[in-house]
Amino acid sequence: MVPKRYVLFGTLAALLAVLHACTMDRATSKGAINLGPTPLKLSYPAWAADSAHKPDIPYDNPTTVEGVALGRRLFYEKALSHDGSMSCASCHIQAHAFSDPRRFSSDVHDGGAPRTSMALMNLAWSHFFFWDARAHSLELQAFEPVTAHQEMFNAWPEAIQRLKERPGYEAQFQAAFGTMLFDSLHVVYALAQFERTLISFDSPFDRFHYGCDSTALTPTEQRGMALYFGKAHCADCHELPVFQDHAVINIGLDSIPTDKGMGARTGKAWHVGRFKTPTVRNCEVSAPYMHDGRFATLEEVVDFYMDDVHLNTPNFDDHMFAWKLGVVELDQAERADLVAFLKALTDTTFLNDPSLSDPNAVGHH
């Protein structure tokens, strides 16, 4: 005689099998089972990542096809701003390496220090964000502009409600994150995913240096390259492969900094005048330069480093040791060569990549 418990277990197993079969029938009748968003691997050359420079993808926000598509739409979404007039792309314009050609992107309402919009590229290689390094992830960075008084000046509940009222967003959030009940966290996760795809490693310099194309740089640009990595000491801070380091430094812009930079955030005296080192990739199109946009041309930037660095500024960085020694000198011809090389860091493919442009624009998908 079969024990009752075995009969019970057999009955339960049979019932579960029937339920599973019904579930599979329903799933297959509607098409393939939804396995969640599609993983997306960032596309970049092998030389762009090494032990010291490698993309950082947070474990809780992996890059996906659906997340990037949503983030791209949100990057160009003006409904995030208070009056519907601004999006992220209003101050980060693709043709200008996702920077703003205006010195200041908006009027300053709260008495804060005016700063120019940073160019956006190769952000997965960065360890912190904003000029004063106050955000330690792209997700944290993306929270601020929506509510910032100087930027979009909106409230997150209002922004979320507007997105829910626009066609397609609920379906996109469902596809990207498995929920239609999305909130600000989902928005910034999607924005960060898209921004990590803003990858630029295809300049004439890259083709010359990494691709071994001896025709990619002119003789003038090659002389400028030798200066950049040599006596001009540019590479002391703007190093390969991303042409920036992970530092927040005082480069001697002013004897007494009017904008305290990182020091304004931390309140520490030794942080005064320190700003994040920006990349010089695509610098030909990302004017104006420095945190306050004080220089309109690359020639002005080079002249500053040759003639006007304030060695007496508090917290003048040790990274600028060559300037302390007084060994950084270029004549006018050398300065022109250096500027020519800096322009050879322009990645026209990146600047014109349709997959990074406004998905709502005519002819763009």
Q: Can you describe what's shown?
A:
The chain is mostly helical. The protein folds into two domains: 46-199, Orthogonal Bundle (Cytochrome Bc1 Complex, Chain D, domain 2), CATH 1.10.760.10; 204-346, Orthogonal Bundle (Cytochrome Bc1 Complex, Chain D, domain 2). The protein is 37% helix and 1% strand. It is built from 14 helices and two strands; from the N terminus they run H-H-H-H-H-H-H-H-H-E-H-E-H-H-H-H. The chain has helices at residues 4-29, 65-75, 88-91, 138-147, 156-165, 169-177, 184-195, 204-209, 219-228, 262-266, 298-308, 321-325, 332-343, 348-351, and strands at 248-249, 275-276. A two-stranded antiparallel sheet has the order 1-2. Helix 9 packs across helix 13. The longest helix has 26 residues, at 4-29. The radius of gyration is 25 Å and the shape is globular. Residues 4-30 and 107-111 have low confidence and may be disordered.
Spatial separation of the terminal alpha carbons: 69 Å
Q: Considering the protein shown, what is the CATH homologous superfamily of the largest domain?
A: Cytochrome c-like domain
H-E string: HHHHHHHHHEHEHHHH
The CATH level-2 architecture of the largest domain is identified as Orthogonal Bundle
Structural class by sheet pairing and helices? mainly alpha
Strand content: under 5%
